[in-house]
Amino acid sequence: MTNLSQFSDAMQALVDKASRRVVAINAGDRDAASGILWRSGLIVTADEALGEEEDVELTMPDGGTATGTLAGRDPSSDIALLRVEAQAATVESLKAASIMKSGHLAIAVGRGSNGEIAASGIVKECGGSWRSWAGGLIDRRILLDLDLDSRAHGGAVVDADGNFIGLAAFGPRNRALVIPAETVDRIAEALAVKGSIARGYLGVALRPFWRRRGTGAVVVKVDADGPAKRAGVHVGDVLTAWSGEPIRDVHDVFRRLGPDTVGSTVTLDVTRANQPASIEVVVGERPHR
Amino acid sequence: MTGDQTMIPAGDCAAPRGKIVVCVVISDPVLAKRMVSLLSGDNRLKVRLGLDDGHDSHVILADRLPASPRPTIIIDDHHHDERDLGRWGDDVRAVLPSTVDEDLLRAAVMMVAAGFTIVGADGPRGFSDEDAEPARLSDIGDDQMTLTPRETAVLSLLAHGASNKVVARELEISVHTAKFHVASVLAKLKARNRSDAVAIGIRRGLILL
Fold it and tell me: Per the confidence metrics, is the pTM higher than 0.95?
């Protein structure tokens, strides 16, 4: 046996092992996606991959079918959790990959209608935490040097020991990225208990504002029971900075109101009738209404 | 025109430095006095009861179209619907009912002084009332379909990442109806998916952040 065939067999064994907890998600007329048996009876997948369907047909690792029911979704971290009742849904806990650096081998495993879908590459980039478009805190920035099949979206990414790096997802420009294991655990645990993830809330509706001296967001509506109202924000105020950092547009404010901001105090720089002012606001939790 | 445009203040709007001079030109003395008292507690404003025509003021508060071409807020109980804004002419930036409260009137004065036009402000309850239509600004095209209050509530839940089931539970409607409302929101906003609808809703000021 050559070294190359040994490598090939070892690779195949890794894919085989990982695929035992990867399911196919057949969501209506959408392209199929994949999901990971995270804990017994619970499947994590990419929120984006799920689309509008909330009850989905699954192809389990043993080839059998089952119905997955949405337990909760968090667009800010792109994680959705499904419940499934099936014999094949009983699994041991996932072993998370420990040290991960750029250059380490990464294998993405999904499941399609014809079985496993595998891709291999290396970790292209591995950095610190980052914020998604909706303000979700992603614990590590992991980009992969591999061609991710759209059907493997939501599948598992494992390292050379078969340990779980995270959930396979698409970043901007369809680049393969990983939602790391610690983020998956944190969000999925909260979704399993509460069904949704809290978000920060000021209680203001904003419109973009532009003028020569810089951009901002003008307050067009204030929630009478909201934190902004309590702090003395008025309709007509132009928000220009968030704790010293310039507010570029309305979306900037949304992005800054991620789940971990609830209860924190921020200093908003506002322009009121052309006079600068600073207002301290305690970020509340987005109400369920 | 779409609702996604950046709001660019018109030419006269370099928001005034120092105090904003408001001239009240209202023939009914009781109403005029009420307007002055609503604004008097605000030290950012200098309020004058207008014996002249208000030509050196930043904002005119009037019960009829004033002679001076200044940014004007009309107090009128019969024509404060946004559809009526056009009939007043270009200088009129907001039309409010006489029952307007302190917060709304001050906000309107601040915004008009800063160059904005306010449409759809909902009477005495002001911008801040959750049942009111969201305050809309003039750069939103007329072709934009407005969301019903129910759809606005659904959009707000989507910003929370709510599933159809959560929407149904929170609004006490069936999952089927929730699905219908979600689809309607996506169609009206021309959104590709939920995340897209939330992004559009944020830009248009439809979602409280």
Answer: no
